[in-house]
Design brief:
Helices cover 42% and strands 10% of the residues. The N terminus and C terminus are likely disordered. The chain has 19 helices and 13 strands. It starts with 59 loop residues before the first strand and ends with a helix. The strands form four sheets. It has a six-stranded mixed beta sheet. With 502 residues, it is an alpha+beta fold.
Amino acid sequence: MCSTSSEPARLPEDPLPEDPLPEDPLPEDPLPEDQGPGSERPAAERPGCQGAWLGPGGITRLNGPAVAADPAALFERLRAEHGPVVPVLLEGDEPAWLVVGYHEVLQVTRNPRRFSRDGRLWTAWREGRVGPRSPLAPVLAWGPDCAHQDGAEHQRLRAAVNESLRRFDRRGLRRLVGRHADRLIDGFAGDGHAELLSRYARRLPMLTLTDVLGLPRDEGPALVEAGRLLLLGAQDAVASDRHIHGVLRATVEHKHAAPGHDLASWLIAHPADLTDDEVVHQLRLVLVAANESTTNLVVNTLRAVLARPPLRGSLFGGRITLPGAVEQVLWDEPPISVCPGGFATQDLELGGQRIHAGDVLLLGLAAANADPRIRSGPGAPMRGNRSHLAFAGGPHECPGGDIGRAIAVAAIDALLGRLPDVRLAVEPDELTWSASTWARHLDALPVAFTARRPAPRAPAPAPSVPAAPRAPEAAGPLRPPPAFHRRVARAGRAAFARLLGR
C-alpha cells in the first residue's frame, strides 16, 4: 500500500517515451400547480420558435440544435419566458427542470435535504421510463461515487477524493503538463499550421490525466473517446461507460500489487477504506468530468484570446494575467454548461415554479453566470471575481477545479510561449459547434503561425531512489518554467501590435 503521508507528492520524473505519439488518436470531431415540467401548451406558435427545437407540449429540448447554434440566446429566451426555473426535455423527451438563475442554482446546491443526489428518487427511474440502458443513466442514475451520495456517505467519499487530490504537487503538475505540451507542439511547430482541438486541446489533458490517475498511457485515447461519447448522451453511452469501468477495474487491481504516486493508489490506501468498486467510481467521476471540462476550458480560452483582439492585447500587454483570462472564460463560457442538480425530495416551489417530489433538476451553469441580476451584461469583465458557477457550488462543487485550472493555464502558456504569433486560420464566425445536453463543443480550432523548429531537448533526469527522496530543488523540470510575459517581451511588442492591426 502506498504511504498516507500528507506531504504533497511529486509526480514521477521518468522520461516520456520517445516513440512519436499517434497523430490522430481521437476523432475530429410559472406553471399551474398541478402540472409538471413537460405539460405546458405548445410553444411552436410563439415568434422565434423552431419546431425542431421543441418536443411534446412545446417544451424545449436541451439536446436540440438551438443549444449548439446560440446557447446564450436560447437561455435568455427561456429566462424571459419562464423565469429562473425552466421546463425542458432530456433525451427521450424526458421532462426536467433547468435552473438558469444564479441565486436559484445556489439554493439547489446548498440544500441537499430538499434536492438529493440519489437518482433512485427520480420519478422516471422509479416508474421504469428510464432504466440502466438509457443514455441518461451514466450521468443521472445512482452510483457509489461522491457525486450521487448525500450526508455522511458523501462526506466520506468526498474526503477521500479531496485529500488524495491535494497530495499532488502543483509545481510538479505544471512540469508534467509542460513536458507533454512540448512534445505535442513539436509535432506541428514546423508545419506553420495546426488544428488545435484534435492535436493539442484534447490530447494534452488526456496525457496528463492518465499519469495523474495512474492509468496505462496506451489506454488514454480510447478512454477519452469513451468519456466524450458518454457525455454526448448517444445510444452508445452505456457501452462507453462499460469500457471505462473495465479499464478502471483492471487499473485498481494492478495498483493493489504495484501502488504508485497517483490518484488510484492514494484512494486505495485512504483511511476512509473505500471498496474497490468505490475506488473505480471515484476514478471514473474524476476522469470523465476533468478531461471534458479541461479540454473545453483550454480550447475555449485559446479561441477567446485569438478571436478577441482586446483580450489578446490586454494579455500580451500585461494588463491581465493568463489565470485572469481563464477566469473570465469560466464566467463567459463554462466548460460544462449544464450539470445534474439533484432530485426533489418533496413538493416545493422554486423560482416561481411548482416542483414535485421526484422531479429532476439540472443546473444551467452557463445561463446562471449570465444572470442579469448579478451581471451587467453578457461578456462583462469580471476581473478578480471568482464567484462564477463554472464548477457548481455547495457540498458537490467540482473537487478538481483547481487542478483543471492549473492544467489549462500551463497548456495555454506553453502554446503561446512557443508560438507567439499564432492566429486563427479562419474568421471567428466560421468556427462551428456541436452540443449535447451537458456541454457545447467547438468542432475545430484551425490556426496558423510562423513555422519553427522543435524545442531543444534537455537530458532526462536520472531515476530517483525511493529510499532517498529528492529535495525540492533536485526535482527540476526538463526546461525552465514558463515565463510568459518575459518571452512575449523578447518576441517584440511591435509584432503583436501588427497582429492587432495597430
